[in-house]
Amino acid sequence: MMNKLIVDPLSKNSVIILRDALSEEIYPIIKSGRTLIILCIGTDRSTGDSLGPLVGHKLKFLIRNKVYLYGNLDNPIHAKNLEKTLKEIKDKFRNPYIIAVDACLGSIQNVGKIIIENKPLTPGSAVNKALPKVGDLSITGIVNISGAMEFMVLQNTRLSIVMQIAEVISRGIYHCILKTIGGKNTSIELENKSLTHINA
Prior knowledge:
- This protein is of the alpha/beta class.
- It has one domain (4-199): HybD-like (Rossmann fold).
- The chain is built from six helices and six strands, in the order βαβαβαβββααα.
- Strands 1-5-6-4-2-3 form a six-stranded mixed β-sheet.
- Strand 2, helix 2 (51-58) and strand 3 (67-70) form a beta-alpha-beta unit.
- Helix 1 packs across helix 5 and helix 2 crosses helix 5.
- It comes from Clostridium fermenticellae.
- Keywords: Hydrolase, Protease.
């Protein structure tokens, strides 16, 4: 059981490291029949806080049996709708396992790194917003330096750093799902075939 793992996106094996760490965590979850929720938190209105929606955007075709995705560029999950979304998830799913993805600020030596922890994350803490803790497992990307005027720091974060982190997180999650669940979503394929037959 992993407590905390720090991944450098610039490492050649970063996607594999992330994939294998996540696979080890979610394999028993999937085997037990629990639903897996990937909850990508953030807003596209702030460069530094756009990590979650970017990851969600990259994973929008990932949906499988028992795997659901919340939060992307079209429908971001942010401070104003997070509690409503959590209630919706609670009402819709019985005991789901939530992987929460969000940006955060940190020390200068960790900027650009990805942190995976076996605990919830606290969204909005960088801008002093009181939001509920989220997730059974958290994936955070350190997009800039913490300190004074953190709202402005997020606004002025380089997009290249956020994109680099988002690419590794999304690929790691994608390959984790392929490894633990498989590449085909049989029920959705059958549903699409049925719709094609009806429309024809």
